[in-house]
Amino acid sequence: MKKAKACKLILPLLPAVIVMLILSINAGSVNDSTPRVVEGILDLANWDMEKNGAFHLVGEWEFYWGELLGQDEINDKASCMLVEAPVEWNNYKVDGKWLPGSGMATYRAQVRNAPVGRHMAVRIQNQASAYRLYIDDKLVAENGQPGDQPNADVSCYRPQFYEFDCEKDSFDIILQVSNDAYAVGGMWEPVMFGLCESMAGVKNMVTFIGYFSLGSVMIMCILFLILFIVSKRERELLILAGIGAAVLVRLLISGDMTVTYLFPNMPIAGFAWIDYLTLIWIQFFLLYFVYWAYISRLSIWQVQILLGYALGVSLFVIFFPLQVVTSAYMIMNIILLLVVTLVVVHLARATIKGGDGASLLLAAMSLILASIFYDMFVNDRSISYFLLQAGAVNYTILFFVQVAIVAKRYNEARRLEMDLLKAQIHPHFIHNALATIISISRRDVDRSRELLMDFSSYLRGCYDYQESDELISIEQELEFVGAYVAIEQARFGEKLQVEYRIEVENILLPPLILQPLVENAFIHGLRVKEAGGTVIVYAMMVPGHKVRIGVRDNGVGMKVSNPDPTGRRGIGIENINRRLARFYHTQLEFIVPPGGGCEVYMEISYKEANKHEDNAS
What we know:
Blueprint: H1 2-33, E1 37-38, E2 41-43, H2 49-52, E3 55-57, E4 59-65, H3 71-75, E5 81-85, E6 87-88, E7 93-94, E8 97-98, E9 103-112, E10 119-124, E11 130-135, E12 138-143, E13 160-165, E14 171-179, E15 186-187, E16 191-195, H4 196-231, H5 235-251, H6 259-262, H7 268-293, H8 300-319, H9 322-326, H10 329-352, H11 358-377, H12 383-390, H13 393-441, H14 445-468, E17 472-473, H15 474-492, E18 496-502, E19 508-509, H16 515-526, E20 533-542, E21 546-553, H17 557-561, H18 571-584, E22 589-591, E23 598-605, H19 606-616
Parallel strand pairs: 2-9, 18-20
Antiparallel strand pairs: 1-2, 3-16, 4-5, 4-9, 6-15, 7-8, 9-14, 10-13, 10-16, 11-12, 11-14, 17-19, 20-21, 21-23, 22-23
Helix pairs in contact: 1-11, 4-5, 4-12, 4-13, 5-7, 7-8, 7-10, 10-11, 11-13, 13-14, 13-15, 13-18, 14-15, 15-16
């Protein structure tokens, strides 16, 4: 028992462990193999640009606090401070004191042994701080203006991509940074560097992953909303739509920063509002979703506390100055980590108890938890990890998992519906059969006993097939028809006749799909005809490699028995149509000959029948 529980937990957690292990190994490999800025110098002598592609400029940059310097001004400096970058400059000490968030500084890396004559490129990611990027003392990228306040247009703070020809084997990369908006400042994100072809590939990949995630989440969000409107019961679908909306908005500030194109005049403070508010409400909706999906696994007070926290922090983010808000980002990240951990714990409990879809959700949420932990405590500057972050891949996976769960629930609902439809047919036939047997028992006890034995055999076989939900052969279906006909003929005598014209054998059908048609022909076509008549049950090949299976009678027809053609379409007929739609994507066809009578048939692909037969075997 304990081993079974352990397996239930280990298997869903395994993907997250494997992914994080792969990322860690990749990060270590990248750190060991790619060039680093060492004591302010980036040496490319042993780096094959053609083979190895683009990389991030990380390492020990020269750092000049409180000044925005050009190349000549830096060269005139007698000494400089070396700092690890990219990282917020709040982590640096100057003269024994931690640097404040506001201020300005200059970073420099001296490139040596560059590939002369090659077409190069740089990409600098979205930074909250204003900056100017120089290559060989030439301004190539600009983000905002020095001294920008929180009301600066966000369109000035989008990622920059610049191509240039490498004319020298040595040149300087200088980054001037100014921050007067956030509580933290500095070079937040690394500068990407490489041959233009490699850089363009990364740029295109960022765009593709970003818009793929954006489109996928949007479609799934709409899907969950529609399903909630249709079902009007499953509130977790509405909560998932809420999570999707928050993730969707968050994706607008990731990767290529689509928000800068949609709302170019939005203040940069709006970027922070989106960042913090979506982060807060995503964690609330995640816990609220688990509460509704597995309501017995956690108490409502946990949801209420988190709701209070989300509302309080939302007011704090909206009404307090941006520098105050951004100073609390680490605390908010720790709370996020704790909340997602709580969600994972509850999903683990639900998985052990066998909750529907809990194991899949546990796998997705453990991946999100691992990625949050990894992002907070592992300094991974690899291109691959940057691409994963740019597209919020972990949240996109969560939605794909939930779509799979919804599809599974839908399939289960359809299966239960099919069982219900078949169960509805049984009372319909049982009522008529028992009425006939009771009537016969009044004058012929032995005959009624024989009919009861036949009826018992019929029911036993019928329920056996219902439990297995398998298709049956036409021979077995005709046995059901024969049992019904025997009961009806015992009541009405030779007035009711049945002929079988089966030209195609080895056909598989859903159980009880012909018997209701014969019953319909008896009741509506032959019983009301004084002389009675004949019902023909047939199966034959038709053009298009299909099989036509049907029932034809020479009774009074629809016009006499009921001027409304739907008069012959009771519960049994409707159930058959729904099952035909389920198995074959078709329905019954009705023909009313001019001379009277009625024909009802279905056409199914003979190849599809063979496919079902293989599955059944």
